[in-house]
Amino acid sequence: MACSREKQTLINQYMDEEMTLQETKQFEEHVNSCAECKQHVTELKKTIAIVQSASHFEAPASLTANVMNKLPKQPKTKKWQM
Amino acid sequence: MDSVVKKIVREVKRGNQDAFAELMELYKDKVYHIAYRMLGNSHEAQDVAQEAFLRAYMNIESYDENRKFSTWIFRIATNLAIDRIRKKKPDFHLEDKVGGTENLDYYSQFASEEELPEEQIVKLELQQWIQDEIMHLPPKYRSAIILKYLEDMSLKEISEILNLPVATVKTRIHRGREALRKRLK
């Protein structure tokens, strides 16, 4: 039962937070009584947590200057008018 | 924020290059980060990020001001990253070994003279491992997973960046998520 296409659809809806409160409650009740679904959901939650723990980097400091140096020459008359 | 960006974009359209530098400062970190996560190394990520901004400048006239600038620049960067992956490896499969053979230089991100304490090394290894796992995903799942779980974007934003219907984005997230789960369990 746990690996049926229908169960996978429910798991996806649950993980995407696309269930109504009622549906969530029903699904969680099922998960608590079905070892396979429980494991599947736990693994998915763990997977997402791992991916989300990836660090964020800043761009190298030289990036803006590198691009600015490659731009075509700026017409002299155009200046800030903000 | 949006109105500030609009103002800056108008200046860029008038030919003001200082304004373009301002625009770059706002988006360079995100553009670079997306490219890094797609490509797995800092050298290529820098190349792609620079190329994305150059193209944005050259094509600024075609940018529709009614849309978010971020969506537009992320789309250019994602397309460039995907093109580059395709050129590197025309037949990419889930099972292919990529992470181990790629020249991943995560450590260079933290280049430092001093010796790293053990705690930091463990953290670096964990981070390297996460990137390896992301690199195992086929590019079309990889981009969806990065935008969803690393950049925390909505399905609508992702669908605009990848130029795909929301339903397709969802499928890619589901498949990418499952592929990662099977490897990580």
UniProtKB/TrEMBL annotation, chain B:
- Please list the GO terms describing molecular function: DNA binding; sigma factor activity
Residue ranges annotated for the RNA polymerase sigma-70 region domain, each copy included = 23-89
Report whether Transcription shows up as a keyword of the record.
yes
What superkingdom heads the lineage? Answer: Bacteria
Q: Which Gene3D superfamilies match?
A: 1.10.1740.10, Winged helix-like DNA-binding domain superfamily/Winged helix DNA-binding domain (1.10.10.10)
Q: Which UniProt keywords apply?
A: DNA-binding, Sigma factor, Transcription, Transcription regulation
GO BP term, example: response to stress
Which Pfam family, any one, appears in the UniProt record? Sigma70_r2
**InterPro entries registered for this protein in UniProt:** RNA_pol_sigma-70-like, RNA_pol_sigma-70_dom, RNA_pol_sigma-W_bacilli, RNA_pol_sigma70_ECF_CS, RNA_pol_sigma70_r2, RNA_pol_sigma70_r4_t2, RNA_pol_sigma_r2, RNA_pol_sigma_r3/r4-like
PROSITE patterns reported for this sequence: SIGMA70_ECF (PS01063)
Q: Keyword Transcription regulation: yes or no?
A: yes
Q: Which protein family is it in?
A: Belongs to the sigma-70 factor family. ECF subfamily.
Give the protein name, as stated in the record: RNA polymerase sigma factor
